[in-house]
Amino acid sequence: MTLTSFGPANLIKRSPETHPLTWRLRDDAEPVWFDEYQAKNGYAAARKAFADMAQDDIVQTVKDAGLKGRGGAGFPTGVKWGLMPKDESINIRYLLCNADEMEPNTWKDRMLMEQLPHLLIEGMLISARALKTYRGYIFLRGEYTTAAKHLNRAVEEAKAAGLLGKNILGSGFDFELFVHTGAGRYICGEETALINSLEGRRANPRSKPPFPAAVGVWGKPTCVNNVETLCNVPAIIADGVDWYKSLAREGSEDMGTKLMGFSGKVKNPGLWELPFGVTARELFEDYAGGMRDGYTLKAWQPGGAGTGFLLPEHLDAQMYAGGIGKVGTRMGTGLAMAVDNTVNMVSLLRNMEQFFARESCGFCTPCRDGLPWSVKLLMALENGEGREGDIETLLGLVGFLGPGKTFCAHAPGAVEPLGSAIKYFRSEFEAGIAPTSAAVPPLARPIVVGA
C-alpha cells in the first residue's frame, strides 16, 4: 500500500480546478514545504480572508459551500462554527484539529499531513480567523511520527513568514499553533475524549450538553474539526461557493470532493481525491482495478471498520452519505475495504470486535460489558464451540449497543459491522454451532470477568 497511489494515469489529471486537496502533491511523494507551497498559490486564501473578508463572512461562506465533516460523522462545518459564542468579551477560544486517525483501514489524513502540512496550517489559520480563536492544537495520533516531524517543521516555517504568532498579516490577530501527540487511543477520535486527553485527563467522552462550543478545552469555547475538513477551507475561500458545489456529481447531497480509497486484495490499492457522488463501482473497478487474479469480491465496507458490510450488488451506490445510507450503512471515512472469498466472516468479526472491545474507555456498561461479551461468543463460534441461541444473543447485543443506547458513538460503530455480517452471512455463523450444544436463551449466557 502506498500513500501516493492515485490510480491509472489516464484517469487522474489533478488540477486546481478539480482536485483542491491534492493538486499540489509532488510525484516523488516528498513534502511540499513553504516556498513550493507558496509558489503553488499557497496562503493566497489566507491573505484574502484576512484582507477582504469579515470573520462572520468566512463562516457564512463555509456554511453556504455545504462543507461537512470528513472524519466520519459528516456534520455541517459551517453550522458547527456557528455554534461558537458571539460574545466578544470571551477572548479565550480554541481550535482543535482532530488528527487522531485510528479508524482501521483509514490513512487519508496521514497523507495530507505528511505531504501537504502547509495546507492544513492554512486551513486552520483561516478557521481560527473566522472563529476568533487565539490558539490551536493539532491532536495527532502518536504513531504518526513522520507527520509530527513534518507538521512541526511547517509550523516553524509559517512562524518565520509571519503567518503564525502575533499580528498576523498586520491584522492585529494573534494565533499560536501547537502539535500535540496523543498516547494512542481509538476513543480519542471522539471530540470530547480528545479534549479530556489534551487536558491531561483520562480519555473518556464527556456528557453533552454542554457542547465543546460552549464548554471545551479548560472550560473555554472550542471547535474541533477533522484534518481533511480543515484542508478544504482554503479552496472554498479562494474559489468560491458555486465552484465548490459544482465539483460534486449530480445526485449527491454532499458538496466538493472527498479522499476515497480501497484496500484489501485489489489490484491497485490506494487513495484518490474524487467528487462526491462517484459510484463505489467506479472506485472499485476503475481506480482500484478490481480484485487480484484468483480472488472474488465477497463483501466490502465503505468507510472504515465501524461501517456495515455491503455486498457486490451494492457497488452501484453513490459515494456520499445519503447514497451509502440508501443501501443500509454509513459512508464513514470513505476508505473502503474489499473482503475476498477466502475470508471467514466469523473470524473477521472476532478480530474487529476484539479491537473495539480493547479500545472502549469502559465508561458506560453496555460498551464495557457488551463488547467483550460479543468477543467471547464469536470466539466460540470461530472454534466450532458455539451454542444454540448464540447468534440471537449477538443480535440482541447489536440492539442493546445501538445508537442512543450508549454514552458515545463507539459501541454503535463497533456493532454495525457485526449486525450486517450476520444479516448477509448468517450461514457462516451457524456453521460454528456445535452439533450437540444445548439451547441457551438469548442474552442468558454469562460473561466470566477476566477469562
Automatic annotation (TrEMBL):
Give a single Pfam family match: Complex1_51K
Listed GO MF terms:
4 iron, 4 sulfur cluster binding; FMN binding; metal ion binding; NAD binding; NADH dehydrogenase (ubiquinone) activity; quinone binding
Looking at the record, the residues that make up the NADH-ubiquinone oxidoreductase 51kDa subunit iron-sulphur binding domain are: 346-391
Q: Does the keyword Iron-sulfur apply?
A: yes
What SMART domains would the database entry show? NADH_4Fe-4S
| Cofactor field | FMN; [4Fe-4S] cluster
SUPFAM superfamilies attached here? Nqo1 FMN-binding domain-like (SSF142019), Nqo1 middle domain-like (SSF142984), Nqo1C-terminal domain-like (SSF140490)
Gene3D superfamilies for the chain: 3.10.20.600, 6.10.250.1450, NADH-ubiquinone oxidoreductase 51kDa subunit, NADH-ubiquinone oxidoreductase 51kDa subunit, iron-sulphur binding domain
Give the keywords, sorted: 4Fe-4S, Flavoprotein, FMN, Iron, Iron-sulfur, Metal-binding, NAD, Quinone, Translocase
Write the Enzyme Commission number(s) for this entry.
Answer: 7.1.1.-
Which segments of the protein form a coiled coil according to its record? none
The answer on whether this UniProt entry bears the keyword Metal-binding reads yes
| Record note on quaternary structure | Composed of 13 different subunits. Subunits NuoCD, E, F, and G constitute the peripheral sector of the complex.
Q: Which NCBIfam families match?
A: nuoF_fam, PRK11278.1, PRK13596.1
Record's protein name: NADH-quinone oxidoreductase subunit F
